[in-house]
Amino acid sequence: MMRDSVIFKIENDIAVLRLCNPPVNALGASVRKALIEAAKAISGADVKAVVLFGYGRCFSAGADISEFGIEPPAGTPTLPETIAAIEDLKVPVVAALHGFAFGGALELAVGAHYRIAAAGTKLGLPEVDIGIIPGAGGTQRLPRLIGMKAAVDMVANGTRIDAARGHDLGLIDEVSETDSFEAAAIAYAMHLVAEGAGPRPTSKREDRLESASEAMALLDEIRTSIAKKAKGRVAPLRALDALAAATGGDFAAGMATERAIFLELRDGTEARAMRHLFKAERAAQKIDDAPTEPPAEIHKAGVVGFGTMGQGIALVLARAGVQVTAVEIDPARLEAGLASLKKGLQDRVDRGRMSPQQMQAELDLINGTTAMSGLAEADLVIEAALENMDVKTDIFRSLDGICKPGAILATNTSSLDLDTIAAATTRPDNVAGAHFFAPAQVMKLLEIVRGSATSGATAAALMALAKRIGKVGVVVGNAFGFVGNRMYHRYTWQAYFLLQEGALPSDVDAAMQDFGFPLGCLAVGDISGLDVAWQVRKAQRAAGDVDPDAPYPVVADRICEKGWFGRKTGRGWYSYADGKPAADAEVAALIEAVSAELGIERRAISADEIRERCLFALINEGARLLGTGIAVRPGDIDVVWRYGYGFPLWRGGPMFMADEIGMQDVLATLQRLEAAYGPAFTPAPLIAARAAAGKTTLVD
Ligand code: NAD
Q1: Cβ(124)–Cβ(160) under 8 Å?
Q2: Is residue 311 lining ligand 1, measured as CB closer than 6 Å?
């Protein structure tokens, strides 16, 4: 099908160009070609000015990222060439921006001679967020337009601004408040013509950029704080190098430097990792057996158990406009739940995070009862009561009798068998896990657990709900700990073994923070309470689920036997005398005593060893989950780790890392670790099979 990628008309001596590439006018090859052709046509025509619009809801979202990594057909103009053709026009060119102009689109606008924007238009160069820098002159033209300081914030931090701020900075010449923006933009161009204003190429401007020495001093000063925030990421620092190239007065040389850095980053690990996660997040939403019609909207929901998780879940539902009925076992607990919910909201109001009206609107949507019969009309019920199978099956049996046909019955269990819970009902196809992470108001991950009978429709309805409440849903299978916690468990066990062999808690956590996790797993354990995992270990041992011949993390039991459960008891792997985690001599003594008890001679352990063991424990368990179908795609696991555990974005996730390393090397490393540290590292069958088949990645 042929479609004009740029609609081109000449009206009253004004050439009007409209970028037309739905849905967001991405600047793909066809648009660039059409812009070049339009520029040629304009050069030969009798026009007095050019106005460049975006068709539909925005000016443009920028480059077409689906073109990344694909060589364009020979002769296709690059974006820098396209922008140069526009900038070289001999009549004034006005970029007329509405909705948003991001990335390459803002670079195109900056390559025009004048800019008018509809009030509220969003502007930004978010390339650093996908591991690259602007590659079409953004780092060279923007500082010439708004000065180095403001340019650094937009280019290296990726800060978005609105039209009004753009006007203050000199990026936007005119902000239009009218409803008829197109007419206003044409009128602005005619006004320029009437005033005799000529072309004003940004690349030749010198009035706004600081002197080379001033600009370089500013970049040096900012570099330290950017490096600290970047935590090992490359793109923000390379963005500064590209900006520095704008200071020499030689535009062409600056463009060449920018291009070289852009290409280096585009093909580098960081950008590929971020693109991988971007795509994986979208792919995770696909459920193969989902019905074709979209799921019915959820208007009314119930939450059973109004403790820590129940309150958080009720809040996220209410925030999305769902009416929530919370059920507790007695009036006192119900009152306590409502009081704690209100207190949490009041704290946010007091800190200026939300308005009193918002708080009231959320509270108005949440009501409480002690009668399960209050859930008869609910479209969805999420159970967040005690982690006990008898309690849960009782609740589901009674929900089955009370809830209307077709209602979704979900459990927030973190470890119990979903099929046993579903079997307490006569409608196991409507039963699923909705595994929120604590605090539910904050953490973006929702593991949607499918039991053997959960229907595609039920999973799809929960996926749609996840999107609506601002979470990222990932469908996982029914196995102890599902995907996230099952892998996390392997990682924490390695951390405990490392303590027993010679490391101290701060060694382990610092190594993982250096890798890019916001916190190490021992500090996280102190926050969530070490007793929770202790209870699970006891239950697993009682059930015979712990291999008596495999290494066991005795140290984690010993610390709990002392009653040191973490922050809530003032001491865990760290002590919390003044609220902040501090190394604790008694904890160190306890760890050393455990080493002696186990007959282990403590040794110095390097940060590299800590990272290797923790990360390969994750990779190996992830591959097992893939091999058994508990995880559907490698990318699903990476999304779980990004949003549930803060795996650093620019590293892509444990499965992305495995593919980067390559199966042969992953297998060899696991074999070496298995020989030294035992069965935790016995290679997952999937890894062994892929390596044997000569494949480098986990899946084709
Ligand atoms: P919690 O103890 O804070 O709250 C549980 C609430 O359920 C209590 O208020 C209790 O009175 C109520 N309750 C018990 N039996 C009930 C019944 N029959 N009917 C109605 N209410 C009942 O516990 P929590 O931390 O909110 O955990 C709830 C569930 O969420 C558990 O299954 C847990 O494994 C899971 N979970 C917890 C976390 C977490 O970090 N806390 C994270 C993910 C999942």
Answers
A1: yes
A2: no
Q: Contact 281/472 with Cβ under 8 angstroms?
A: yes
Q: Is the CB of 171 under 6 A from ligand 1?
A: no
470 & 506 share domain? no
| Distance from C-alpha of 555 to C-alpha of 566, rounded to nearest angstrom | 14
Yes or no: say if 457 and 291 are a contact pair by the CB < 8 Å rule: yes
The domain boundary, picked from 418, 449, 480, lies at 480
Question: What is the pLDDT, as a whole number, of residue 3?
Answer: 59
Domain holding 11, by residue range, is 2-266
Q: Are residues 121 and 148 in the same domain?
A: yes
- Counting from 1 in the atom list of ligand 1, the atom nearest the Cα of 413 is 32
Are 516 and 231 in contact by the 8 Å Cβ rule? The answer is yes
Say if strands 323-327 and 366-369 run parallel, antiparallel, or are unpaired: parallel
**Nearest residue CA, atom 21 of ligand 1?**
305
CA of 414 to the centre of ligand 1 (A): 10
Distance 528 CA to ligand 1 centre (A): 14
Residue 583: pLDDT band by 50, 70, 90 thresholds? very high
Q: Are residues 614 and 591 in the same domain?
A: yes
Residue 91: how many CB atoms within 10 A of its CB? 22
What number of other Cβ atoms are within 10 A of residue 326's Cβ? 26
DSSP label at 210?
Answer: P
Q: For residue 82, give every residue at least 6 positions away whose Cβ sits within 8 Å of its Cβ, in sequence order, or none.
A: 27, 32, 35, 36, 108, 136
For the stretch 609-656, pLDDT in tens is 999 999 999 999 999 999 999 999 999 999 999 999 999 999 999 999
- Phi and psi at residue 299, in whole multiples of 5°? -100, -40
Distance 453 CA to ligand 1 centre (A): 24
Measure 490 CA to ligand 1 centroid, in angstroms.
25
DSSP 480: T
Locate the ligand 1 atom nearest the alpha carbon of residue 392 and give its number: 18
601 in the same domain as 555: yes
Q: What CATH number is given to the structural domain containing 352? A: 3.40.50.720
SS3 of residue 142 by DSSP: helix
pLDDT at site 539 = 82
Cβ of 307 below 6 Å from ligand 1:
yes
The answer to whether the beta carbons of residues 615 and 657 sit under 8 Å apart is yes
Tell which one of 338, 386, 482 to mutate to probe ligand 1, the residue whose CB is within 8 A of the most ligand atoms.
386
Cβ–ligand 1 contact at 413 (below 6 Å): yes
- 274 φ, ψ to 5°? -70, -40
CATH number assigned to the domain comprising residue 624: 1.10.1040.50
Q: How close is the Cα of 533 to the center of ligand 1, in Å?
A: 15
Structure tokens of 603? 């040794």
Number of independent structural domains in the chain: 3
- The residue whose CA has the least distance to atom 12 of ligand 1 is 305
pTM of the model: 0.85
Does the pLDDT at position 2 exceed 60? Answer: no
CB 312 less than 6 A from any atom of ligand 1: no
CA of residue 188 to ligand 1 center, whole Å: 61
Atom of ligand 1 nearest to the CA of 438: 40
618 in the same domain as 558: yes
Does residue 205 share a domain with residue 328? no
CA 543 to each of CA 536, 538, 546: distance values in angstroms, whole numbers, following the listed order: 10, 9, 8
Is there a single domain that holds both residue 83 and residue 183?
yes
Q: Looking at the structure, tell me whether residues 196 and 47 fall in a common domain.
A: yes
Q: Which of 475, 521, 485, 501 is nearest to 614 (CA)?
A: 521
Catalytic residues: 107, 127
